[in-house]
Amino acid sequence: MTNHIEKALTAKGIHLPTPAAPVASYVPAVEVNGMLHISGQVSMNDGELITGRLGDNMSLEEGQQAAKACALMIAAQIKKAAGSLDRVDRIVKLGVFVNSTADYTDHPKVANGCSDMMEVIFGAAGQHARSAVGVASLPLGVAVEVDAIIALKLE
């Protein structure tokens, strides 16, 4: 399989992180009948957790960057599980969880950090359905966690 998407990312100065290992009893990805399910990927940058709470100690822009980091980790997990990003037929759905205060309401804007990066990576195939919800806490105190469902091209 070719690596056209990865070459395009490199040309744009975008590099995928090393896929994160699970921190509990689950696997990072499961493929069933051409659908790849990616477990929740937490906000990390260069191996360092991006922690914080929107509406408290984190700005919208910082939240969007945390969500973007989740998108890059999802892409890294797709590459590891599928062998190539070129196997992606469509990003079907993202579930975005935002660590936020009870009165915070800009979850969709935070989630755009992930959604926009999916379109940068995959073009029109990166457009997807999505949920964006606020939660009282996330694992390890991270700001954002995102899971994904991806349709793969049949080989």
Task: Describe, in short, the structure shown.
The chain is α+β, with helices and mostly antiparallel strands and about 160 residues long.
Describe the structure.
The protein has a single domain, classed as RutC-like (60s Ribosomal Protein L30, Chain: A, 2-Layer Sandwich). Helix content is 30%, strand content 28%. The protein contains three helices and seven strands. The strands form two sheets. The chain has a five-stranded mixed beta sheet with strand order 1-2-7-5-6. A two-stranded antiparallel ribbon has the order 3-4. A hairpin with a 2-residue loop joins strand 3 (44-45) and strand 4.
What is the CA–CA distance across the termini? 9 Å
- Note the beta-strand portion: 25-35%
CATH H-tier superfamily: RutC-like
Total beta strand runs: 7
Query: Helix amount, in percent?
Result: 25-40%
The CATH architecture assignment turns out to be 2-Layer Sandwich
* H/E topology pattern: HEEEEHEHEE
C-alpha Rg (nearest Å): 15 Å
CATH class category: Alpha Beta
Query: What is the CATH topology descriptor?
Result: 60s Ribosomal Protein L30, Chain: A
Trace the largest sheet across and list its strands: 1-2-7-5-6
Largest sheet: 5 strands, mixed
List low-pLDDT spans.
none
State the shape.
globular
Count of all domains: 1
Mean pLDDT: 96
Q: What structural class should be given to the helix and strand makeup? A: alpha+beta
Give the number of helices.
3
